[in-house]
Each structure stands twice: as structure tokens, then as C-alpha cells.
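Example record

The entry below shows one chain as it appears in the dataset: sequence first, then C-alpha cells.
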Amino acid sequence: MKKLDIGNSDFKSIIENNNYFVDKSLFIKEVIDNQSLVILLPRPRRFGKTLNLSMLQYFFDINKPENSKLFTNLKIWKTENEIKSKQGKYPIIYLSFKDAKDQNWEKTYKYIVNEIINLYSKYDFLLENDILKHHEKNTFNKILNSEADSVDYAESLKRLSEYLYRFYNQKVVILIDEYDTPIQAGYNRFYENAISFMRNLLSGAFKDNKFLYKGVITGILRVSKESVFTGLNNVSVYSILDDGFSDKFGFTEIETKQIIADFNVPTDYELIKKWYDGYKIGKTGDIYNPWSILNYVISYESGFKTFWANTSSDELIKEQINKKDANYLREQLLKLINNETIDKEIDDNFVFPDLFTDKELLWTLLTFSGYLTSKNKTGRKTYDLAIPNYEVKTVFQDIILKWLNADVNIKRSTLIDTTKYLINNEIVKFEKGFREIIGDTFSYFDINGEPENVYQSYVLGLLAIIGDDYIIKSNRESGEGRYDILLIPHDKTKYGIVIEIKQVNKDKNDDIEVFNKKINDKLKEAIKQIDKNNYYMELIENKISNIIKLPIVFAGKVPYITLLSKDGNEKNIQ
């Protein structure tokens, strides 16, 4: 049986070592057939970008015509002769910026320069003939010896493409992998430095370059044309929202099922779908996370895990959530955790500094980074977004839980115990734990504005950690009205729960008896509303016979669930 060489993105070594390869070779044909001179392909991290570029490199490389043997058993070799005739015909310029990131621009720039030096060293034989003029050799040597200035390095790709054309009398293929890594690394530290240099480097390589046959660029984001691709009218962009190349990154359902069969993985395929499926690229649905699938195949005995996580945008999410005024963001995230969709505008031309002023840009970042996926296009630039699968859902859950634990100082054990009290109908205990959690949370954040929305947001947040056992819905039609929150258990013998949230204002002149009456009246009103409008109808339709009708009344930052009596004791309203 062939072996998986996970983490190896070198196409040649995978084929020569007879390792398992998911045949994406028709990617080459799609690149050749594309009418554009330069193709930009933004895709999430670890979706096969580097391997695909490596495959292009070995296919086109004029110095290695014998590479044809790498492709003879692949789909590309079954295409027309015109496509196969391109094999081994073009000089290659290949740069990867995946490691070009550090804490400051000086060190990041050094990574970029070293990559260019390594590229030039592969073609140092150009110095040994009369292809280069004297001054060109001087600049070439300066680049090799790390003595060139930033202008020389920015123009290095344009110059090298001309030198290679002279030597081979053939136009070049330029491949740039992870072009936006230095830009993402410096978004809040040295953004202008990174943008300025990368703009000059890429413009030199691709703008009006008469020595260029094809250019292919990969990254995570389409950074705004005004920022990087200034004046490049020959670039076609195929993002995860576009149809082009839609099945060339990530695994399709057919490919995934073949991998599972080839490695004889004894598993429930529906669970694989739940954990790692769910991406939609253009109109192509059921795209699986390739990194997660491969890692699961080699370690399936250990069960399902979160293999794909912790891209740079993870820090951005945490940064946004931790802001004091992030109630709306948290409310939106909690809807997503509860398997709902949110309708958002996606901005193709992403400008990092705008994140500080336009909070809605976060949804663009999360979508292109693979944390969210499009379900439907709802307008010219708007989409219904959802969490693609359970693996990514656990990432969001962990972020919320870590925020509650670290910043709001709520222990995970307290959260879990409190939810257990609720689903086991231990309402008095639930109220005590819930009051502790909400009190701490609302002490940390301002609940001015629309407090009822904030209340509902945090109740949903608490319930999100039991989402594995329950379908959690909010503000949906049921019976004759709209419930606030509904919990539908997967196990029909468990309690179904319908929650109605109310608010009262506590006047400073209210004595205890008056205040208690306000609370009790609102609790009774909430229960009557649940019964009158049949908010539990969806539970009955789902054949749930054990139903908890739970009123929650907030007085400022304090929630009340059980009736208050004159003697100070509390009792369950039901």
C-alpha cells in the first residue's frame, strides 16, 4: 500500500517515492487554458497551494525535460497533445514567502532577500557567458552577495526573467507562493513597509513583462489591487467565491471517499462529513479540508480531532472578541456556533489597516481564511456565511471559552456544571450557577444599548458548549410566535427546553416587596407567553415529551428564574 507523506509539498519526491497522491494534475491544463497572463489563487492555509505550485514547477521546467515521467500516470497525460507539448519548455522562477514573517520589518525583509538570493544562485551559470552585460553581472553579484539595495531586490524578478529569456530564447513561468504572508505578519506593525516592497516586487515581475509566459500567485487573501497589484490589469483572481479552479484545492467528496477506501479506514463516513466537509468554493460544494482528512486517515484509531487551526486570523478573532464594545461580534459568533447563518458583505479587495475602523471586514478575513464558508449568494457582494464543519466549530467554541475563562474569569467547570443542571431540570441549582456566570460577564462588559439582545447573546454563549447533544435555535417561528431560545435534544428521552427572556427596571425607590412583585409578574408573564403562543410546538413535532419551560428575567445584571417570596426563599415557577 502507498504511504501518505503528510507535510511534504514537493511533488517530485511524492511521485518518485511512490507515495499516495490525490491527482490534481488537471490544474496544469486549467492554468494553460486560462486566457489570463497572471492568475491569483487565494485559498485557506493547508489547502494544497504549495503542492500545486510545485507540480507546475516540475511540469514546465525547461532544465528538466525528463520530468515527463512524473506525469505519465496522471490525468494530465491523457489530455490533448497541445497541453503535453508545454511540458519541459519554460524557464522557471519560483519563490515562496511562507516563512517570510517576523516581529519587525528588518527581519521579515531578510527572509525575502534570502529567498531571492537562493533563486539567483540556481542560475549563477548566467555569469559564465556573454548573456549578461558587465553592469548586469555587477548587479547579479550584488544580489548573490547580499550587497544589493532594496530597489535591486524589488526589480530582481523582472531582470531575471529577461536574463533567462535571453539564455533559453523562451518566455518564463513565474510562480509565487504565499505572497501575502509578509503583509499579514506586518498588518499592525510594518504594513506599509511590506506593502511597498511587495508591490514593487510583483509589479516588476508581472506588469508589462514581455518575457512572461504565465504567472501564478497563491496566498490566503486578495489584498487590494490599490495596495499590491497597482496597474496590473492582466491579473485574474479566482477566490473561494469564484468558479474557476474550484475543485483543484481541497478534496472533493469523490476524492475523499477514495482515500478512505484505499486506506481501509473503518469509520462512519457521516462523521467524517460532519467534522471535515462543508466548504463551498464557487459553485462546487462538499469540499473537504485536505490537511484534516490526511491526518485523520493516519491516526483514525485516536478518533476525530481538530487538525487544522491556529492560522494568523485566530489571533485577530481573539483580539476582536476581547474588546469591550464587541457585543455585536460575540452575538454573531454565537449564532454561527449554534449552526445558524449570518448575512454579510464580503470585500474582495482587502486592506488590512481598515480592520481597525471597519469591523465588518473581519467576516471577509474569516471567510478567505477558511473559518467560514459561503452557503448562498444573497446580493451583489453579500453572502450567507456559516461555520463549515464541526472541526472549525470547536475552534470558535474554544475561543469563546478561553475568553470567558481568561478575561471574564469564569471557570470551564462552572460552565459545564451549570449547563448540566439545566438539562437535568435542576432549576434552582442552574439559577445559582447561571447568576454567578452572568454576573461576572456583565461586570466585565457594558450592557447599555439593547440589553435584551445582550442577554440573549450570553445565554446562547453558555448553551453553545452543549451543542453536541442539542440543536440550539434562537428567534425562530414556532407555534403562534417567536421564542427566544429553543433546545432540541438529539436523544428524544432528554428534556427539551424553551426559554423566554424578559427584562425589568429596578427603581431605586422600590422596596423588596415591590421589586419581588415585579420579578414574579414578569416570570409569570414569560410562562404565559410560552404557553399562549405554543413556543414548545417544535419540541412536540420532534417527539420530545419532556419539556422545560424556562423564564429568565433580568433586572440589570442579575437574572431571576424562580419565584421570589416574602420570606426570601425561592421556588421553581413550574
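Notes for this example: The chain has 22 helices and 19 strands. The radius of gyration is 29 Å.
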